[in-house]
Write a structure and sequence with these properties.
Blueprint lengths: L1 E8 L24 H15 L4 E4 L1 H6 L1 H9 L3 E4 L12 H19 L5 E2 L12 H8 L4 E2 L20 E3 L6 E3 L4 E3 L5 E3 L3 H6 L2 H13 L6 E4 L15 H8 L2 H14 L1 E3 L1 H4 L4 H4 L10
Parallel strand pairs: 1-2, 1-10, 1-11, 2-3, 4-5, 5-7
Antiparallel strand pairs: 6-7, 8-9
Helix pairs in contact: 1-3, 3-4, 4-5
Bound molecules: zinc ion.
């Protein structure tokens, strides 16, 4: 079973958890950490002979094009992580369309790739912002990985399908690939595929979750993390006990855990693992499955 390995490429001042302690006006003044972090991740992936999907923030593509070109040159997939890391459910559809258009253009300018896979900042495609899928399809996206089928204080659609499925929109179908979760005996759904869980919990938590999805459910798992999650030298902007822990806890052990994950499981890119069904490539094709 081949799983999806994905990285959301953003600076340490972009996470939603950190944004209350800074502002977009200050972003230009912080030193960039992305090039060094990406270099380490590319080395790790090269050593393990794994290709991954990098969802790139347009703001970063504009300022660090060499790092994005290095990702492409190493043969990885380039996806889109929005332009300015704004939560989808806090934007109007018109604002979301403009943010997406700007991100796609910035990524094209940086590396010549037109992204067709999207991941929203903080999984912010929720029940109230499902309209975003239609806009993504109309912008040429064939894949989305922005829905977390769990209950969480900031994101998630509890009860949403836990595995990849084709969703119909007015602008055509889009293949939704949720992040890995575990269905518990009591009906609850626990998150598995997030970088924070790998960082903060023992390695066996993530490993057991992926194994269960692969073996018991015969499905691929989708995991993700952020470049700043491996960087002990990043400036620590988040304040408060909870935010500090969520953002910086376990950073020093993260690279070792990722290395172990890449040794214990097989991984590839989103579009390799979830190729678009042939029936959807045909003009006028109708979606095979509905949410
Ligand atoms: Zn993000």
């Amino acid at each position: 079973m081949i799983n999806v390995f994905s990285i959301d490429v953003e600076e340490y001042f972009h996470p939603t958890e950190v944004q209350p302690f800074t502002s977009p006006g200050q972003w230009e003044h912080y030193p960039s950490r992305v090039p060094g972090q990406i270099g380490r991740i590319l080395d790790l992936l090269d050593a393990k002979q794994v290709k991954a999907t990098f969802f790139v923030l347009g703001w970063v593509a504009e300022r660090q094009p060499a790092a994005i070109r290095a990702i492409r040159a190493a043969g990885h997939e380039i996806g889109c992580h929005s332009y300015a890391h704004r939560l989808v459910y806090q934007m109007t559809p018109a604002e979301f369309r403009e943010d997406t258009r700007r991100a796609v253009a910035a990524i094209e300018d940086a590396c010549g790739i037109t992204a067709t896979a999207y991941r929203a900042p903080s999984y912010s495609i929720t029940r109230q912002s499902l309209w975003a899928l239609d806009i993504l399809a109309s912008c040429g996206f064939t894949h989305d990985s922005s829905i977390y089928p769990i209950a969480h204080d900031r994101y998630g659609i509890p009860g949403f399908g836990r595995h990849a499925q084709v969703l119909p929109t007015a602008s055509g179908p889009i293949l939704e690939v949720p992040v890995a979760t575990a269905a518990l005996w009591n009906g609850a759904v626990a998150p598995v595929g997030g970088g924070a869980y790998l960082r903060l919990l023992p390695y066996r938590y993530t490993a057991a979750g992926i194994r269960r999805i692969n073996r018991a459910e015969r499905q691929p798992a989708c995991v993700y993390f952020h470049p700043w999650e491996i960087d002990c030298g990043q400036p620590r902007l988040a304040e408060g006990r909870i935010s500090h822990l969520r953002t910086y806890g376990g950073v020093s052990g993260m690279l070792g855990k990722l290395e172990r994950l890449l040794s214990d499981f097989r991984f590839s890119t989103l579009q390799q693992v979830h190729a678009l069904p042939g029936s959807l490539s045909a003009p006028g094709a109708t979606p095979a499955l509905v949410a």
